[in-house]
Specification:
With 179 residues, the chain is α/β, with parallel strands linked by helices. The protein has a domain at 32-150: Rossmann fold (3-Layer(aba) Sandwich), CATH 3.40.50.2020. 21% of the residues lie in helices and 31% in strands. The strands form two sheets. A six-stranded mixed beta sheet has the order 4-3-2-5-6-7, with helices on both faces. Strands 1-9-8 form a three-stranded antiparallel beta sheet. Helix 1 packs across helix 2. The chain starts with 5 loop residues before the first strand and ends with a strand. The structure holds inosinic acid and magnesium ion (MG). Magnesium ion (MG) is lined by residues 42, 45, 101.
Length: 179
């Protein structure tokens, strides 16, 4: 039986996340002066971040989601992304802000950026809560980043390990249990 992983140290507290999300909302609000904005959350990992983020963007906007499946319960990146839900909102001519929980290898984002550019938006930008800064080539560097992330496997505030830990209000690392 594989050894279960245990919750390690807190990396970003709930208060620190809230303060940064407020700043990101202000940055995003200042960036989009005109036009229709669709905030497109990549499920499931972005669900809490997106909920907090949009409440800090006072301009008019719409919310929709993309469901892509790339990871199983393993912890390494596989190259392919499947789209399980496609936004119902028309994207052509609108500003798309793609919201992602964490950029690791960048594979997920690269596939989605290519797909979304094909929908002919007015603009396409990425907002990532966390960026591990290890992606070798990104089609589009996230314009809005919450925090640079340490090279650890992180959970909480939407991030999961095998679907667990998403509900934690803070972000922590996962560790092998002590002997
Ligand atoms: P990428 O395609 O390698 O950039 O991985 C992006 C996706 O992998 C994220 O949206 C997460 O769902 C997942 N992921 C990557 N790193 C972590 C992590 O440290 N904790 C939890 N999920 C992660
Ligand atoms: Mg994700």
């Amino acid at each position: 039986m594989p050894t279960a992983l245990e919750l390690g140290a807190e990396v970003f507290s709930a208060d620190r996340i809230a303060a940064r999300v407020e700043e990101l909302g202000a940055e995003i609000n200042a960036h989009y002066l005109t036009g229709d904005l669709i905030v497109l959350g990549l499920l499931k990992g972005s669900f809490i971040f997106l909920g907090d983020l949009v409440r800090n963007i006072p301009r008019p906007l719409q919310v929709d989601f993309l469901v892509a499946s790339s990871y199983g319960s393993g912890r390494s990146t596989s190259g392919d992304v499947r789209l399980l839900y496609d936004p119902e909102t028309g994207l052509r001519g609108k500003h798309i802000l793609l919201v992602e929980d964490i950029v690791d290898s960048g594979n997920t984002l690269n596939r989605l950026v290519r797909l979304l550019r094909g929908r002919e938006p007015r603009s396409l930008e990425i907002c990532a809560l966390l960026h591990k800064r290890i992606a070798r080539s990104l089609e589009l560097e996230p314009r809005f980043v919450g925090f640079n992330a340490p090279p650890l496997f992180l959970v909480g505030y939407g991030l999961d390990h095998a679907e667990d830990y998403r509900h934690l209000p803070f972000i922590a690392s996962l560790e092998a249990p002590k002997e």
